[in-house]
Design brief:
This protein is mainly alpha-helical. 62% of the residues lie in helices and 3% in strands.
Length: 669
């Protein structure tokens, strides 16, 4: 007979509750106890909404006025209000996620207890629309034909945007890259040189398609539109694979349909898909890389024994690193993080080796041995130092004379602009005027770092002001455009994808005359503005929802789940000790084996979930390296920076809602 202390047959480790060692006082069934138990989080977990509430309050003030009133009590009252709001939202959301993790839906029937359903189960469509509904039915299956079919559905839903946004949306930086490709001297470079400030691979890619359009249609824009179409196809296949991967999990089927509808109809997705910039190009490549990374974690790195998988994974990671500077660091950190997983040591070594090889190729070998042969000038580190330089610029703005002669010389010799110039050029919401386009580098970066620390020790308040003003757009829901208008005008901090090209007349405009916005693109713009200006409906469009609220909730969830798993492990340990003392063990030893299996799964589940969320979390963290975060008149929207995060968010929500451990009998197999 099966030992009932281990659990009933068919129970999952998460759904089963160990009650043998629960104190009697915790078995209260009163309404007040149920409410308190529903809302009671880990005490440490409360720090996450508390810190987030404080940062949102500070960012709201910084976005509106360019400074944070740390000496005013209303700032802290506002922070408490936000913290309480986030705490309640997170607690309720956590309970909702736990409910979803114990329910799997097959069509319209809910199955309690977490039994797995087949991936292709569906209710028979109505006969009148059978052929249409049969085609527009996502397969969620990881096979080439099914992924291609799902990708075609996505493209059909995006088709209005693909047509109306002709000939694609070329960003300012992209136009400059194409001009560089054709030999124009930009950014202080000699004619014919390509500066790797913008990744050289993107420059050659965009230039090649512009040349194709000129050769075939005598129009550079047509070539860029061809690239935009291919980019849309690439995104469709990547997203279809992401949905297929989620379809193989225990995810609630209705949630899976919601994710598919999100990718089909959320306007930001097709609008950014038709945008041509290094951020969207890298995101197109990063989505399949993130899926492969998660599959690697699921397999406990066993997929590294498949040479075809490793080749595709390494090549895609290399392309991600070559199309966006931050892509290299996200890929490398994700690979190094695999060291914390419970995987075979030699497989961990293989992944660390891959990380080192990618870093050496992109950051050392190419600049030293290849760039000189393809007319590429290596970039400088000013982009990665945008936030530290901006914080120093704020100190220079607030205290222009309070710096030692030694530190002033270090700043003047390292940065493009002197201490006095960064003080005069300082813009609270934009780092470019202070950091410039390059660094002099006459002194080592370590010497500049010492000067930066010295200034920060004198004026930590200025550094905080500089931080919150530059990063305000990621953590606020309202802002005022006070710099460009005499009368402050409230502006909702929402995602604003571009609908028309923004190219300079002296770069790409020299090759292809700029055309004014078309009636079709204006239609897309006005319809989009109608949506984001409608209260309630515009909630999913707020930037801070994706860049602050959701990352905060995932961290909160991971912490609470870790704490609860520890409690269950402690309860199991006490139960096992009691069983050992009473010698009540199954004759064949299956009870102990099952308990050991459950313990092993519980210990590794949290790490695996954290690793699978890591590409998304690092993408969110990388936003704080950007030179701006707020949408302002005359400046391109930073929405393109957030697009990769938006694409990966449904996958992470899927992990959270379906991240249950395997059943014991599955682990034994």
């Amino acid at each position: 007979m099966e030992d009932k202390r281990i659990g009933r047959s068919g129970d999952t480790p998460v759904a089963r509750e160990v009650t043998a060692d629960i104190p009697l006082e915790s078995r209260d069934t009163s309404v007040w106890f149920k409410i308190r138990n529903f809302l009671q989080p880990s005490k440490v977990g409360l720090l996450i909404p508390a810190v987030l509430g404080f940062m949102v309050a500070c960012s709201s003030q910084a976005a509106q006025f360019g400074w944070v009133p740390f000496d005013h009590v209303y700032l802290y009252l506002q922070a408490v209000g936000y913290a309480m709001l986030f705490a309640v939202l997170y607690m309720v959301a956590y309970r909702g996620v736990e409910f979803m993790r114990t329910r799997v839906f097959d069509g319209s029937k809910a199955i309690a207890g977490g039994e797995t359903t087949t991936a292709n189960s569906a209710v028979s469509p109505h006969k009148r629309f059978a052929s249409i509904r049969r085609y527009f039915h996502f397969r969620y299956t990881e096979c080439p034909s099914a992924i291609a079919a799902d990708a075609s559905i996505l493209l059909c839903c995006w088709l209005p945007y693909i047509v109306l946004l002709f000939p694609g949306v070329i960003h300012f930086d992209t136009g400059d890259q194409i001009a560089e490709y054709y030999g124009m001297p930009l950014y202080g470079m000699n004619a014919g040189k390509i500066w790797d400030h913008h990744p050289f691979l993107d420059t050659y890619l965009y230039g090649w398609f512009a040349t194709l359009g000129k050769a075939l249609f005598d129009n550079y824009n047509i070539g860029m539109y061809i690239y935009a179409l291919l980019q849309a196809v690439g995104f469709a296949f990547g997203i279809a694979w992401l949905l297929a991967y989620l379809g193989q999990t225990n995810l609630n089927r209705r949630m899976l349909h919601v994710f598919a509808a999100f990718f089909c109809f959320f306007p930001v997705v097709p609008m950014c898909v038709m945008s041509i910039a290094k951020d969207t190009t890298s995101a197109m490549l990063f989505v399949p890389w993130a899926v492969m990374y998660c599959k690697l974690v699921d397999s406990k790195l066993e997929l590294t024994r498949n040479p075809w998988f490793v080749a595709a994974f390494a090549l895609d990671g290399l392309l991600v690193a070559l199309t966006k500077k931050l892509g290299l660091y996200i890929v490398v950190l994700c690979l190094l993080a695999l060291l914390i997983g419970k995987f075979a040591a030699k497989l961990k070594v293989a992944m660390v080796t891959l990380a080192v090889v990618l870093f050496v190729i992109v950051d050392m070998a190419l600049p030293k041995f290849v760039y000189q042969h393809i007319n590429v000038v290596p970039g400088t580190p000013e982009a990665a130092l945008a936030l530290p330089i901006q914080m120093m610029a704020r100190a220079a703005y607030d205290h222009p004379d309070d710096i030692s002669d030694e530190d002033r010389k270090a700043v003047d010799d390292y940065l493009e602009y002197s201490w006095d110039e960064i003080s005069q050029n300082y813009d609270p919401w934009l780092a470019v005027p202070a950091i410039g386009w390059t660094v002099k580098g006459k002194v080592p970066v370590s010497r500049f770092a010492k000067a930066w620390l010295d200034v920060g020790a004198r004026h930590p308040d200025s550094y905080l002001q500089g931080f919150f003003c530059l990063e305000a757009g990621w953590m606020t829901f309202d802002a005022f455009s006070v710099k460009d208008q005499k009368i402050p005008k409230p502006v909702s901090v929402v995602m604003l994808p571009m609908t028309t090209s923004d190219t300079a007349t002296y770069t790409y405009g020299m090759l292809q005359p700029h055309t004014p916005p078309t009636e079709a693109s204006e239609t897309v713009k006005q319809l989009y503005r109608t949506i984001v200006d409608t209260p309630g409906i515009n909630i999913p469009f707020f930037m801070a929802l994706w860049t602050a609220v959701l990352p905060g909730f995932v961290l909160y969830y991971l912490w609470r789940r870790r704490k609860e798993q520890r409690k269950k492990m402690l309860a199991m340990s006490k139960s096992d000790n009691a069983a050992s003392r009473s010698d009540r063990v199954d004759a064949d030893g299956r009870g102990n084996q099952l308990a050991a299996s459950i313990k092993a799964q519980t210990l590794s589940a949290g790490r695996s979930l954290l690793l699978k969320c890591l590409p998304w979390l690092l993408t969110a963290a990388s936003l704080y390296v950007c030179a701006e975060s707020l949408s302002r008149p005359g400046r391109p929207s930073p929405t393109r920076f957030v697009f990769q995060l938006v694409l990966l968010t449904p996958m992470v929500i899927g992990f959270v809602c379906s991240g249950r451990e395997q059943k014991p009998h599955q682990a034994e197999q």
